[in-house]
Amino acid sequence: MLTGQASSLIQGRRARVAATSTVNGHLTDLDDSLSARNLEMNAVLGRIAATAQELAHYHSGDEEGIYLAYSDFHPYLLGDSSCVKELNQWFAKQLDTGPFRLVAEEGKSKCSWVSLDDISNIFIRDLEKSQHQRVSELQRLRSIFGTSERQWVEAQVENAKQQAILMALKSQVSSDEAHIHLDFHSLRRKHSELVGELSNLFHKEEKLLSETIPDLCWELAQLQDTYILQGDYDLKVMRQEYYIGRQKAFINHLINQLARHQFLKIACQLEKKNMLGAYSLVKVIESELQAYVSATKGRVGRCLALIQAASDVQEQGAVDDKDNFLHGVRDLLSIHSNAQAGFSTYVSAPGIVQQISSLHSDLMALQSDLENSLPEDRNRCINELCTLIQSLQQLLFASSTTAQPILTPRPLMKELDEMEKINAKLSAAVEEVTLEHFKKNEIVKHHSQGVGLQRRVFVDFFCNPERLRSQVRELTARVRALQVS
Q: Mind telling me which PANTHER family this protein's record contains (predicted)?
């Protein structure tokens, strides 16, 4: 039954996903078509606005020139009008009044397009007054201004050419106005078509928003058998549960890390106590050695004299057994020889003094390290551990149950890994120190037996060498038997 319900839920989810994808596809297509229509409408409106601006500028009458669609002839028309005006003024001034009027009248009489009756009437009217005067004046002016007639004819020809060009331009302007009128009507018609298409698209969009999309949403709700937002709520709940689980795991990790650091702190405190005890022991040994050194300084001269006396004979290292002071010094030196894992050889007083001086130099070096480098390293390690513990406590107690967990950043993870490695190294170092303490305790435990054995061997070496040889043979045979077995 559970399998059937799970399969039905999966099929319902697939149906919902398919329906939502179909609706999203329809909406995407509608958005694309609307955006394309809007782009076309914007282009058409831009052209309409440009054409309307040009027409308004043309009808405003701001310019005196003629409006043309492809070129502007306003400077040409201004030059033509000024030229015609200057020619008219010059001809009116030079040929209508004054002595040039006679030259003009004679030139008109010779032209084919001038009426002869007008000229004859003018000549008849003035003939009776000053016939001789006119003839002489005409001859004189004709000799001076013989070229005026030719210039006037050329000016008239140029004026006729300008008038022909002006008529051609006016015809071109009229044709351009007709084209503009046709374009304006076509733009209006296209604008009306686009407005109709936009209204249809708006109606379709309103229909989709009001009918189709609610129906599809209702079908999705029926397929899911619950509200539409139930899926989002479930997703939020699952996400919150996942966050809570991660937060619990992180809290457990921090608790374990805090326990490790507490244990490390306790171990550091114990090691500090052990170091203080060792330091006090070293101080006691130093005081004893200083006492022995002060006691031996008085006997240095005697020892030097004995060395000088026995320089010809090889020294065997014999020491009187009745000398308790040298026996005490040898006992102290035997501790160092046992720590070096070797058998001690009993030497004479100068050899003992040399060993004491070497031990004193080693002691001074260790004391300088203990006073200078070890406290600094210990304080730095303790400060770093305290800072790290405080930061971990802040991270542990800063979060709340309602807030989302703050996941561990990458640098903190690296620092945690480095801290794990340091903890491992520190554990190994603690184990090594513990092992050394154990060895030291064993050495101290068996010290008395070793001292007695060393004394017997020393005495047998000088007093009874045969017994020492027999003991060596027994030990050699025992070792060989053990090797064979």
A: GOLGIN- RELATED, HAUS AUGMIN-LIKE COMPLEX SUBUNIT 3
Give the whole-angstrom CA distance, residue 443 versus residue 165: 134
pLDDT at 227: 47
Q: Are 40 and 194 in contact (CB under 8 A)?
A: yes
Distance CA 9, CA 15 (A): 10
Spatial neighbors of 105 by CB under 8 A, at least 6 apart, are 119, 122
In the numeric block, which tokens belong to residue 220?
């999705």
Spatial separation of the C-alpha atoms in residues 433 and 445, rounded to whole Å: 18
- Domains in the chain: boundaries: 1-90+168-225, 235-484
Collect all residues with Cβ–Cβ distance below 8 Å to 22 and sequence separation of at least 6: 216
Least confident of 27-36, 350-359, 390-399: 390-399
Instruction: Of 115-119, 150-154, 339-343, 420-424, give the range with the top mean pLDDT.
Output: 420-424
Give the SS3 label for residue 406.
coil
Cα 289 to Cα 335: distance, rounded to the nearest angstrom: 13
Q: Is the dihedral of CA 180, 186, 190, 191 positive or negative?
A: positive
How far is it, in rounded angstroms, from Cα 475 to Cα 453?
Answer: 14
User: CB of 221 within 8 A of CB of 228?
Assistant: yes
Whether residue 228 contacts residue 220, with contact meaning beta carbons closer than 8 Å, is answered with yes
Compute the distance between CA of residue 338 and CA of residue 111 in angstroms, rounded to an integer. 157
- Quick check: 426 and 264 in contact, CB under 8 A? yes
- Sequence-distant (6+) residues with CB within 8 A of 219 are 19
Q: What is the mean pLDDT of residues 102-111?
A: 54
* Cα 16–chain centre separation: 41
Segment (H or E) for 68:
none
Check whether 465 has a pLDDT greater than 50: yes
Q: 294 pLDDT exceeds 60?
A: yes
Least confident residue range of 25-39, 115-129, 266-280: 115-129
Task: Check residue 356 and give left, alpha or beta (phi > 0: left; psi -120 to 50: alpha).
Answer: alpha
The position carrying tokens 């995407």 is: 28
Angle at 176 between CA 172 and CA 182, to 5 degrees: 150
Give the whole-angstrom CA distance, residue 336 versus residue 350: 17
Q: How is residue 348 annotated by DSSP?
A: -
Whether the CB-CB separation of 344 and 318 falls below 8 Å is answered with no
Phi-psi region at 399: left, alpha or beta (left = phi > 0; alpha = psi -120 to 50): beta
Q: Are 83 and 162 in contact (CB under 8 A)?
A: yes
Helix, strand, coil share of the chain (percent; to 5): 85, 0, 15
Contact 352/332 with Cβ under 8 angstroms?
Answer: no
